[in-house]
Amino acid sequence: MPDVSHDPSTSLTRVARLGALLESAQLLHASLDLDTLLAHLVRTVMGRHLVARAVVAIGDGETARVAALRGLRSLAVGDPFDASVAESVGLTRVLPIGTPPVGLLGLGPAGRSVDADEEAFLLGLLGIAASGIANARAHEETRRLNTDLDRKNQELASLVELVRALARTTDPDEVARVLGLTLAGQWALSRYAVLAARPGQPPVARQKGMTLPPCDRYLEALARLPDACTPEEIEDTALRDLLADQRVALLFPLRVGGQTVGLAALGPRPSGLGYGPHDREIGAGMAAQAVVALENCWNFRETLEKQQMEKELALAAGIQRGLLPAALPHVEGLDVAGASRPARVVGGDYYDALLVERANAPYLLCVADVAGKGIAASLLMSGMHATLRALIGHDLSLAALAAQTNELLFAATPGNKYVTAVLLQVDASSGQCRYVSAGHNDLLVVRPGGDVEWCPATGLAFGMFPGAAYGEGELTLAAGDISVLYSDGVTEAQRTDGAEFGATRLVDAVHSAASQPAEAIVAHVLREIDRFTRGVPQYDDITIVVVKRTA
Amino acid sequence: MPQPFSVQRTDEGDISVLALEGFLDAHTAPIFEQAIQSELDNGRARLVVDGQKLSYISSAGLGVFMGFIEQIRQEGGDLKICGLNQRVRQIFEILGFQAIYDMLDTVPDAVRRFSEVPTREA
After folding, report:
1. Which chain B residues are within 8 Å of A272, Cβ to Cβ?
2. Cα angle vertex A281, ends A279, A284, to 5°?
3. Cβ–Cβ of A271/B61 closer than 8 Å?
4. What is the three-state SS of A305-326?
5. Is this structure's pTM higher than 0.80?
6. CA atoms of A374 and A351, how far apart (whole Å)
7. Smallest Cα distance from A177 to chain B, Å
8. B81 to chain A nearest CA, in Å?
9. Are the beta carbons of A60 and A101 closer than 8 angstroms?
10. Is the complex ipTM higher than 0.95?
11. Which residue in A339, A399, A506, B44 has a CA-CA distance of 20 to 30 Å to A186?
C-alpha cells in the first residue's frame, strides 16, 4: 500500500476512491451476466485513467480471448489476445485480472498521470472483477449444463414417445409416418425421407420435400455405410450424388439383424444449424427403434399372409380331393380300388376310373403324374382331369385319346411342364386289355402263380411335344391276375439312408396280399411303404390303382 | 392409454385460430394435420395456433408444424404460435422452433403480429 498521507484533500480523494471501489464491487458481484460485468469494468477503467482504448480478454495467458473491447477496430470479440497482440494494436499496458489470473486487461496510453493510489485502486478493482468474472462464468456453465440437461431430457422423452407410438402399430406405413414426424419435430425439418423395402412386401416410403427413388435399388450401397453419415462421407459416387441432389444432410441406414432394409434421410436444419455427433447418435437411436418396429410389422403381416395362404391351400386340397373318384364304378368281374396321398397339402398326382355309358364299353383306368409338386402341379393335375373327362365321351381309340390329350395339354402348359400317365382299358368279360403309357413308369401285372409282367411306355409324356403319336400295348388278365397302376412316388419312396422302396418291394407287397380284395391290396402296399420309410416325410405324391380280375 | 386431443377452430377475420387442447403426439398428430390441411384446402393460410390448453407435445407433434410451414409461407401466409405454457414452450425452444416461428403470448398478440409480419421467408 502507498504510504498514508494526512493531507485532508488527499483523504477526501481516498474516501471517494473507496466509495467508487465499493460501488464497483457491488455492481460486479450483483451481475451474473458476464457482458454487463465486463462492460462496467472497461468503462470504469477507461473513465478513471482517461484511456481511449481497452480490451478485456478472458482465459489464462496462453489462450485468452477477447471478451469485451472499446475504442478498437482491429480486434473483435473471440480473437486471441496476449502481450504481443496488445502491442500490435497500440495497447501499452497489459495487466492480469486477479491472482491466479482469469484474464487480461489491455489498456492504451493513459490520458493523465496516474498516482500510486489510483494504481492501487485499479489493482483492487481487477481483484474484485476477477471474482465477479469467475462467478459469472460458473453461472454460465451451470446454465449451459441445465440447457444440456433439458435437451437430454427432451431427447429421452422423444425416444420413449417414439417407442410407445411404434408399439401401437402393425402397419409399416404407420411406422414410417411416426418416424418421419418425429425426425421433423426433433430437428425442425421440412425435408425428410423414410424409405424401406422387404421382398414380398409393399415398399414403404414417406417423404416430405424429397423425391428419393425406391430404396431397394441401392440397399447394397446403403449396407456399406456407417450408422449415420453425411452424403460427403459416402464413397459410392452414384449414391452420394443422388442424396446430395435431394439435399440430404444426414443419413441413417435402417438395419435390423445385419440386414439393411432402408434409410432415414434428414434435410438441412433451419437457420444454417448443422448436425453434431450428438444429433447423429440420437437420430441413429430413433432409426434403430423404427426398424425393429418395421421388422415386427412385416413379420406380423407375413404370418397373417401365411395363415391366409394355408386356409386357401386347405380349400384347394378339398377341391382336389373332389377331383379324385369318390367311389369307383362297379363292373361285374373286376375289383378296382385306388388311393392318392399328396406329399404336400395339394399334389400333382391323379387317378381316375371311367366307365363310358355304352353297351360293352371297356373300363378305363388312369394314373397320371404331373412333373413337380405343390400348387403348380395341382393346377396342371386339374387340367389333366378336365381334359380326360372331356375327351372320354368322343368314342376315340385309346391311341387317339392319348394323342388328343397330348395336344390339349401341350397348348395349355408352359414348356417345362409335362404329365406322365398310364391309361388302361379293360374288357371285363374277356380280360383283354389295351394300354397307353405316356412316358409313365411300367405298368405292373402280377399273376397268382408268381409271374410278373412289366409293360413299358408307348409314347412321350403328355404336353411335351405337339403331334406326338402313341402306340397301344396289349395284355390279358386272367382270373386272379392283378394289374397295378402307380406313380413313381411309390417306387421312389425313400428311407433316411436314401434307399428306395423300389419295384421288388412293390411286387412283394402286391403278391403277399394278392388273395385279398383290391382295396386291401392298395392299403397293404401303402402300409408297406410307411413301414419301409419309417416316418421320413413323404417327398413325392404317392398314387396307386389296383385292378383285379375276379372271374 | 391414448391421451385425448382436440382442435377448436375460430375466425379472426381472414386469420384462422386453431386452439389445441390435450396431448399432441404421434397418435394424435393426424387430427392436427387434418385441421391445418382443411384450412389450406379452403384457401386460408393465415393461421394462429393457440396452445394455451396444450398440455404436452412430442417431437412427432412438433413435426406437424414443420410439415406445413413451407406451403403456408409459399401461399403468402404464416403460422404463428401463442399461449404455450412454460413446459411446452421450453420444448419448442430446446428444439429451436423460435428461430422459425413467431411465438407470442396471447391470441390478440398473434393476430396483431400478422399486420407487422404477414409472412416470413419460406
Report:
1. none
2. 105
3. no
4. HHHHHHHHHHHHHHHHHHHCCC
5. no
6. 17
7. 9
8. 15
9. yes
10. no
11. B44
What's the maximum distance between 2 C-alpha atoms anywhere in chain B? Answer: 43
Interface test with A, best of B54, B58, B121 (most A CBs within 10 A): B58
How far, in Å, CA of A492 to CA of A494, rounded? 6
pLDDT < 50: residue spans in chain A: 1-2, 4-5
Q: For chain A, list the domains and their CATH numbers.
A: 8-140 (3.30.450.40), 169-300 (3.30.450.40), 324-549 (3.60.40.10)
C-alpha cell at B30: 393426424
Amino acid at A226: P
Q: What is the pLDDT of residue A131?
A: 87
- Residue-level pLDDT at A356: 72
Q: Give me the pLDDT at residue A360, please.
A: 66
Strand partners, A363: A355, A426
Q: To the nearest whole number, what is the mean pLDDT of chain B?
A: 92
Q: How far is A173 from chain B (nearest CA, A)?
A: 13
Q: What is the pLDDT of residue A437?
A: 96
* pLDDT number for residue A359: 60
Give per-residue pLDDT as tens, B48-94.
999 999 999 998 999 999 999 999 999 999 999 999 999 999 999 98
Residue keyed to cell 497500440: A90
Packing angle between helix B59-74 and helix A116-167, nearest 10 degrees?
100
Domains belonging to chain B, first-starting first, are 5-116 (3.30.750.24)
Number of neighbours of residue B76 by Cβ within 10 angstroms: 11
Which residues lie below 8 Å from residue A47, measured CB to CB, with a gap of 6+? none
What is the distance between the alpha carbons of residues A348 and A505, in angstroms, rounded to a whole number?
Answer: 24
**Window 135-174 of A, Cβ < 8 Å to B:** 147, 150-151, 154, 157-158, 161-162, 165, 168
The CA distance from A275 to B79, in Å, is 26
Whole-number pLDDT of residue A6 = 57
Are the CB atoms for A341 and A545 separated by under 8 Å? Answer: no
Task: Give the rounded distance of the alpha carbon of A121 from its chain centre.
Answer: 73
